[in-house]
Design brief:
The complex is a heterodimer of chains A (583) and B (113). Chain A is of the alpha/beta class and 583 residues long. Chain A is built from 15 helices and 25 strands. Chain A has three domains: 225 residues, P-loop containing nucleotide triphosphate hydrolases (Rossmann fold), CATH 3.40.50; 220 residues, P-loop containing nucleotide triphosphate hydrolases (Rossmann fold), CATH 3.40.50; 90 residues. With 113 residues, chain B is of the alpha+beta class. Chain B has a single domain, classed as Glutaredoxin (3-Layer(aba) Sandwich), CATH 3.40.30.10. In chain B, strands 1-3-2-4-5 form a five-stranded mixed beta sheet, with helices on one face. Chain B is globular. Classes of the chains: A alpha/beta (583), B alpha+beta (113). At the A-B interface, strand 6 and helix 5 of A face helix 1, helix 2, strand 5 and helix 3 of B.
C-alpha cells in the first residue's frame, strides 16, 4: 500500500472512505487508511453499527473485504441486527467479502498460570484477514478482553502490540470501546490508538433522544470539531455534515411567482427569489398552510419538484383542505412533482428530523421545500436546538438553491413580530398573516415584514380565502383606521351612498341656480320692457309738447298777427329745446 | 498436528493420587517454539508424569501450522491448555510454571501428596 510521506506533515493522508453519508465529508475522505481508528461511546450509541457499516460499504462500494471480530455478539446475532438496515451479511460472507468471527470469552473457564501472550488472537486475526484478503478490520469491543484475562500488564502490552501489528498489516481498522467515567474509554485505549478517535453520544433531552458524533482527534487531518448529529434508520448510519459555517451560496437573480398575482405585486412585482427562504408566520387559522400550498402548486405548475414536510396534518387532510379553496394538489402528486412527508414532530428528535429531511431532499431533488410548520419542531427539542437546526437546514437549502417555504405559528393574543423558533433573522422574505379583529369579526390581513433585495409593498392587504384560491384585496384605510371584512364592505357602501348624495346635491344646486338665473333674466327683460315703455312715453310727451308749443306759437303768431306785433326770438329757442330732448 | 506424548491408558487406578482415576485428555495450544511455549510443554509433561502417570494424553497443537484451529477452538492466549476430559472443560493459560496453581485449576488439590 502507499506509504504516506513520513516527513511531510502537509502531505495528504491517504483515507479509506467509509461510504457513510456525511461521515466522509467531516473526516475529509474517511478514516486513516491502513491505521486503526477508535470509536468510543456509551452502550447503545451505535458503535457496532458504525463499524459494521464501514465494513459492508467497504466490501460493496470499495471492493475491500473486511473482517469483523465480534467479542460480544455471535455472527448470527449480528446478521439479524443489521438485517433491518438492509445489510445481508450472509450473502457477503458467501461471496468472501466479509468474515465475522465471534470470539468467546468466559472468564470462569480460564485459569491463569504463568506467562502468556495473545498470539492466538493475532494468529486468528491474521488467518481471517488472509482468508479473504481483508483490507478492513473491526474489533468490537476489544475491551471485553479485560474481562476475560486478569493480568492487566500482559493485556496492555499485547494491545499495544496488536495495534502496531494491525498497522504493519496495512489494514484499516476500527476498534470500538465503551465510554468510561470521565475518560473516553474505560480501559484508556485512546493511549494506544492515537491516529483517529471518534466519539459517539446519545443524549436524551425532554424525553427526546438525539445522537451525536464528534471527532476527538484525527492526526494529520483538519477536521470539523463540532458535534454532528447522526441517525440510524432503515438506510443505516448517516451523519449530518451541515456545518452551517459557509455563507458562500450563490444568490440567484431569478424571481419565482408565488402563485398569487397580487402577492407577487406586493413583492416588487416578481415574486420571491429562487433559493431564498420565505417565512409565513401568523396565529392559528390565518391561512399559512393555504399560502404555502399556493406556492407549492405554483412550483409544480412550473414543472419543478416540490417537497412538502407536514408536521401537523396528514397528506390526505392537506389535499382535501386545499381542494376546498380551489387548490387541487392531486394531479401534481400523481405526476410525481409534489411529495409529502408527514410526521409528528415529537416522533423524532430534532437531529432525526433534520436527517430525515436532509435525506428526503437528497433523494427527491426538489426545487422548493415547504416545512409546515417549523414552529412545531420546537416541541421536538429545546428551542435553541430547534433554531440551530433550522439554520442548518436553511443553509443547506440555500447551498442547493432550493427555495424554502416555512410556516410558523405564533402564539395567540398580541401579535409578535418574532417567530417562536427564532429564525426570523435568517429569513429572506417574511410574510405575516395576522387576524384583524374589528366589528365582531376576525379577518385576515397580510403584509410583508421584510423581503431582502426587493422593493416590497408596505401596505396591508386583506387576505381572502375564496373557493378559487387566495385573493388579496386593498383594505380600507381612512380616518377610522384600517377596516376589513364587513366593515370594509359597509364602509365602502356608505362611501358610495355619500358619493351619490353629493352628486344629487350638486345637481340640485345647479338647478336652483339655473332657476334663479332665469328669474333674474326674466326680471331684466321685464325691466327692459318698462324702460322702453318709459322712453316711448317720453317721446310721446315731447311730441305733444312740441305740438302744443307749435300750436301756442301759432296762437301767438295769430295773436301777433292779429295784434300786428313782430315775431320774437324766444318762441324759436323753445321749439329747439323740445327737439333736443326727443333725440 | 503433532502429538508429542501419548501414553497409553494402563488402568492402574489404585496406585493413583486421583481417586476418581479418570482418563485425562489434554490439549496444549502453542505458537511455534517461543520460550513460553517450550516452557509450557516441559511443565505440562512434568506435571502429568507426577500426578497423572499412565492415564493422560497430551496433544500439542501449533497454531502457526493450524491457524484455523485458533478460531474453531476459541483460542486467544498462547500457550493455552485445554482439559477436554474429564468434564467439565477447563482452560489454563500461561506457561504452567506453577504446578500448585495447576492442581488448584484442575481441582486436584486435595489429592496432592
Amino acid at each position: 500500500m502507499a506509504k504516506p510521506n513520513a516527513k511531510g506533515s502537509t502531505a495528504k493522508l491517504p483515507k479509506a472512505p467509509t461510504g457513510i453519508q456525511g461521515l466522509d465529508e467531516i473526516t475529509g475522505g474517511g478514516f486513516p487508511l491502513g491505521r486503526p481508528t477508535l470509536v468510543c461511546g456509551a452502550a447503545g450509541c451505535g458503535k457496532t453499527l458504525l463499524a459494521m457499516e464501514f465494513l459492508v460499504r467497504g466490501a460493496i462500494e470499495q471492493g475491500e473485504p473486511g473482517v469483523f471480530i465480534a467479542f460480544e455478539e455471535t455472527a448470527e446475532e449480528l446478521a439479524a441486527n443489521v438485517k433491518s438496515l438492509g445489510f445481508d451479511l450472509g450473502k457477503l460472507t458467501d461471496q468472501k467479502k466479509l468474515l465475522v468471527d465471534h470470539v468467546v470469552l468466559d472468564a470462569n473457564q480460564i485459569d491463569e498460570n504463568g506467562e502468556y501472550d495473545l498470539s492466538g488472537l493475532f494468529i486468528r486475526l491474521g488467518y481471517s484477514i488472509d482468508a479473504i484478503g481483508a483490507k478492513r478490520v473491526v474489533l468490537d469491543t476489544i475491551e471485553t478482553l479485560f474481562g476475560g484475562f486478569q493480568n492487566q500488564a500482559i493485556l496492555r502490552a499485547e494491545l499495544r502490540r496488536l495495534f502496531r501489528w494491525l498497522k504493519d498489516k496495512g489494514v484499516t481498522a476500527i476498534i470500538t470501546a465503551e465510554r468510561g467515567e470521565g475518560t473516553l474509554t474505560r480501559q484508556g485505549l485512546e493511549e494506544y490508538v492515537s491516529d483517529c478517535v471518534i466519539l459517539l453520544d446519545h443524549r436524551v433531552n425532554d424525553q427526546v433522544s438525539t445522537r451525536r458524533l464528534r471527532i476527538v482527534k484525527y492526526r494529520g487531518t483538519s477536521h470539523g470539531t463540532n458535534e454532528y448529529p447522526f441517525l440510524i434508520d432503515e438506510d443505516g448510519f448517516s451523519v449530518l455534515p451541515i456545518t452551517g459555517a459557509g455563507l458562500t451560496h450563490v444568490a440567484s437573480d431569478e424571481r419565482i411567482s408565488t402563485g398569487i398575482p397580487r402577492l407577487d405585486a406586493m413583492l416588487g412585482g416578481g415574486g420571491v427569489y429562487r433559493g431564498s427562504s420565505v417565512l409565513v408566520s401568523g396565529t392559528a387559522g390565518t391561512g399559512k398552510s393555504s399560502l404555502a400550498a399556493h406556492l407549492a402548486r405554483e412550483s409544480c405548475a412550473r414543472g419543478e419538484r416540490c417537497l412538502y414536510f407536514a408536521f401537523e396534518e396528514s397528506e390526505s387532510q392537506i389535499v382535501r383542505n386545499m381542494t376546498s379553496i380551489g387548490v387541487d394538489l392531486r394531479p401534481w402528486i400523481k405526476k410525481g412533482l409534489l411529495k409529502f412527508v408527514a410526521g409528528r414532530p415529537t416522533a423524532n428528535g430534532l437531529e432525526m428530523h433534520l436527517a430525515v429531511m436532509h435525506r428526503a431532499i437528497r433523494q427527491f431533488q426538489p426545487r422548493m421545500v415547504v416545512v409546515d410548520p417549523v414552529s412545531n419542531l420546537a416541541e421536538a427539542g429545546i428551542l435553541r436546538d430547534a433554531s440551530l437546526m433550522l439554520t442548518r437546514l436553511i443553509d443547506f437549502l440555500k447551498g442547493e438553491q432550493i427555495t424554502a417555504i416555512f410556516t410558523s405559528l405564533t402564539a395567540g393574543g398580541e401579535q409578535k413580530e418574532e417567530t417562536e423558533v427564532g429564525i426570523s433573522s435568517v429569513i429572506d422574505t417574511w410574510l405575516l398573516v395576522r387576524s384583524i379583529e374589528l366589528g365582531g369579526e376576525r379577518n385576515r390581513g397580510l403584509y410583508v415584514i421584510k423581503s431582502r433585495g426587493m422593493a416590497h409593498s408596505n401596505q396591508i392587504r386583506e387576505f381572502l380565502l375564496t373557493p378559487r384560491g387566495i385573493d388579496l384585496l386593498d383594505v380600507y384605510v381612512g380616518p377610522e383606521g384600517v377596516l376589513t371584512g364587513s366593515m370594509r364592505l359597509s364602509r365602502e357602501a356608505r362611501e358610495k351612498a355619500e358619493e351619490a348624495e353629493r352628486a344629487r346635491d350638486a345637481d340640485l344646486r345647479r338647478r336652483v341656480s339655473e332657476r334663479r338665473r332665469r328669474a333674474i333674466e326674466a326680471q331684466i327683460a321685464a325691466l327692459r320692457g318698462e324702460l322702453e315703455e318709459e322712453v316711448a312715453i317720453d317721446r310721446g310727451t315731447e311730441a305733444g309738447e312740441r305740438e302744443r308749443m307749435a300750436r301756442a306759437s301759432e296762437t301767438r303768431q295769430a295773436m301777433a298777427r292779429s295784434r300786428k306785433a313782430d315775431a320774437t326770438k324766444g318762441s324759436s329757442s323753445n321749439g329747439r329745446g323740445g327737439a333736443r330732448t326727443g333725440a | 498436528m503433532k502429538v508429542s506424548a501419548a501414553t497409553k491408558a494402563t488402568k492402574k487406578k489404585a496406585a493413583d493420587e486421583d481417586a476418581s482415576g479418570e482418563f485425562w485428555n489434554l490439549r496444549l495450544y502453542v505458537a511455534g517454539q517461543s520460550a513460553k511455549c517450550v516452557a509450557a510443554v516441559r511443565n505440562l509433561n512434568a506435571f502429568c508424569e507426577t500426578h497423572l502417570a499412565g492415564r493422560y494424553r497430551i496433544e500439542v497443537i501449533d497454531l502457526l501450522e493450524n491457524p484455523k484451529l485458533a478460531r474453531d477452538d476459541q483460542i486467544l492466549a498462547i500457550p493455552t491448555l485445554v482439559r477436554k476430559l474429564p468434564e467439565p472443560l477447563r482452560k489454563i493459560v500461561g506457561d504452567l510454571s506453577s504446578s500448585e496453581r495447576m492442581l488448584v485449576g484442575f481441582n486436584l488439590r486435595q489429592a496432592s501428596p
